[in-house]
Amino acid sequence: MTLRSRTSLWIALACGMLIAPASYAQGQGNGASPPHGPGQMIGAGKGRAVERRPGRKNLLAWIDSRSAMESHAAAVIERLGHDSGSYDTYIRADAAGAPVRSELQAFDGIFFLGSRGDELTPQQQADLLAFVRDGKGFVGGHAATDGFPSWVEFGEMLGGRLERHPWGKTDTVLVIEDPTFPGMQGLPRLLATHDETYEIRDLSRRDVDVLIRLDVSHLDPTKAKRQDGDFPMAWAKPYGKGRVYVNSLGHEIDAWDNPAFQKMYFEAMKWILGLTDTRIATHSRVEVEGSPQPLK
Predict the structure, then answer these.
(1) Tell me: the pLDDT tens digits for 59-108?
(2) In the beta sheet, which residues pair with residue 231?
């Protein structure tokens, strides 16, 4: 069974539940019941412990399973952690059912690829912010900046909010502004790709290290609100003692099968989990000359 087809099955089964690392479920074909912890579907809020294996971090992939892309992305992130031995991933598909502090204690970081219009209770909000602020990590994938739209503090933690998609999905050129950040090393400084365009509001370069921005020189400027030509697509920032990484790329399901794209997210996971370190430096817009190369 392929990775993508396995994912669709698992997420369909896991809607409203916390599902343990998928790579453990693969190969259980002897009909035996999987053990507690990794390899087992865990009912959210049912009080079952999340296993912590020696030498591995625990990552919570918290997704909105209404999209095949999000289901597939979660499976890719899980496989990268499992195959590398870096972390174990537990997938939660009930986007509005944020874990509370007692459940979050089992995790070192969150990969958030979820909620559009859902809202959290004040206690869930406080617990999530405290989780990151007190030293854990948070990766916001693709549409994360559109999550929990009325929750101001969530946008402040992320560092910015989605304003609109001024040019929709189109052929674009991306500028790698910080080639020293994990996952950016070795990439061409100018990337030619096809993805959904993002215009971000409430983002200040004084607060974030912009890693990737959209080159809009070939796009119609009248379709965007901001007229300064600055359109960040990925950035990193501290939040209290914690680490936050946001990447708006990845609208198309096939993007998550691109090795360079996978490396980009995998290195981000390692960074927010504290497995690697790097200097976060804010900076003004970086101009790069040359010819765009494909992301591969």
Answers:
(1) 999 987 677 888 899 999 999 999 999 999 999 886 556 677 888 999 99
(2) none
Q: Give the Cα separation of 174 and 102 in Å (integer).
A: 40
What's the token pair of residue 253?
């399901």
Burial (CB < 10 A; 0-12, 13-18, 19+), residue 12, is exposed
CA max distance for the chain: 60
Which residues 6+ apart lie within 8 Å of 51 measured at CB? 36, 37, 38, 88
Query: By the 8 A CB rule, do 62 and 110 touch?
Result: yes
Report the 10 Å Cβ neighbour count for 158: 26
Residue partners of 295: CB distance under 8 A and separation at least 6: 174, 187, 191, 192, 193, 258, 260, 261
Judged on CB neighbours under 10 Å (0-12, 13-18, 19+), 206 is exposed
DSSP 58-106: EEEEEE-TTSHHHHHHHHHHHHHHHHHTSEEEEEE--TT----HHHHTT
Handedness of CA 11, 14, 18, 21 (dihedral sign): negative
Q: Which of 238, 165, 180 is nearest to 211 (CA)?
A: 180
Q: Residue 184 and residue 153: Cα distance in Å, rounded?
A: 28
Sheet holding 137-141, edge to edge: 41-42, 18-19, 87-92, 57-63, 109-113, 137-141, 242-247, 232-239, 209-215, 169-176, 190-196, 293-294
Residue carrying structure tokens 């669709």: 8
Q: Are strands 137-141 and 109-113 parallel, antiparallel or unpaired?
A: parallel
pLDDT tens-place string over residues 227-238: 788 999 999 999
List of domains in the chain = 3-294 (3.40.50.880)
pTM: 0.86
Cβ atoms of 195 and 249 within 8 Å: the answer is yes
